Amino acid sequence: MSESAAEDRGKAGSGRWFDWAGLGADLRAAGPDAGIALVVTGAIFVWLYVRVDNGTSATVQVMPMLADADRYWMYWLCQAFGWSGLLWAWITIVFSLLRTGPRPRVRWLPAAGLEKLHRTTSLTTIALMFMHALMFFLEEVRGNEGGATWPGRLWDGFLKVFVPGGYVTGTGRLAILLGLLAFYLAIPLGLAYYLRQRTGSRMWRALHRFIIVVYVLSVWHTLLYGTNVWYDGTFRTLVWALQMPVAAMLLLRLLAPARPSERLRLRGPRRTSRPLPLTARLAGRVAAVATVAGLAAVVATGVDGGRTPDGASPGTWPERWVIWAGLLVLTLALVAVVHRLRPSAVAVRPGGSAPDRQERQDRQERQERQDRPERQGRQEREEPGRRVG
């Protein structure tokens, strides 16, 4: 979802911090996408409801008290929004990796179209995540029938569902924490695009790369807490299998990024040594290879260390302090990116914002690749005339 440096500088000069017009346009464009998501959510809800009603639901095996589908319909709607939210998160990540990595050279899949689809599906994903949490909150409020007053019910439900670390019992101690971190990280990282007129295109792209963390947390939350995939089985293995295309596309995107500046080079444009970027990018490629291999092993064996209906199930891992420590590391990384790429850290031209030399270089290289076929065709047309002359 890159914008030209000139456009970014022009918008930055307008004094506006947030691109409300762009967000409004994308929200309107996300209407059909959101409509499809609601239809899919409804279909999932019906499927879950029928399985509960006829006694084949995996959730009822885990929690028999939920066998009354009519009474606990908000819980099933919560699950339906969760599954559609995970599906849309998968879709938007695929669009992003197609845009920033190697992709099929077909006219019906232009870069601008992929950018727009990525933005609209990202907004739909955030909305689905919110609805997933909201329905869980409403079910918690409804189910709190121990004589608590309404203010007490609302506060208890809010604490459990919307406050990270507020849910303190069972698997939810870890799973709901992961889901909330994914939701709260998705909002700033997903909306960073609409701040690019102030931050510059380089900073928002650097921040937006961390969105893969949101997806990983979402999948982790699902595999840990989704009662439909509570036990090892075909459906749980299918969820793992769907991660293989994402991991493979991420590896391709790291090996052959669309932007020349992100390629694995020993030296920078000015022939300067680049040990830190080189190490980070090499580590990313190694991690992607290991992820693909690990996913292949899980899909092939059908075993991921999860629960089994008849045997002793392992305890949840890791402890919550590990998650908080990981969040601290992620926060420090985000702060470092903002500090390094903030406009004031770069020399500013008179009458303009911070120059983006690498962006201009990338744009020139892309333009040269686009013009090359035209130049070759012109030379081929002129060659016969030269030979005749």
Description of the molecule:
- 69% of the residues lie in helices and 0% in strands.
- The chain has 16 helices and no strands.
- Helix 3 (31-53) packs across helix 5 (73-100) and helix 3 crosses helix 6 (111-143).
- The radius of gyration is 24 Å and the shape is globular.
- The two termini are 49 Å apart.
List keywords for this structure.
389 residues, mainly alpha, single chain
- Number of beta strands: 0
Number of helices: 16
Average pLDDT score: 82
What is the straight-line distance between the termini?
A: 49 Å
Shape estimate = globular
Q: Which regions are unreliable across 5 or more consecutive residues at pLDDT < 50?
A: 1-15, 346-356
Structural class: mainly alpha
Order of helices and strands: HHHHHHHHHHHHHHHH
Gyration radius, in Å: 24 Å
The biggest sheet amounts to: none
Q: Considering DSSP H and I runs of 4 or more, what fraction of the residues is helical?
A: 55-70%
- Share of β-strand residues: under 5%
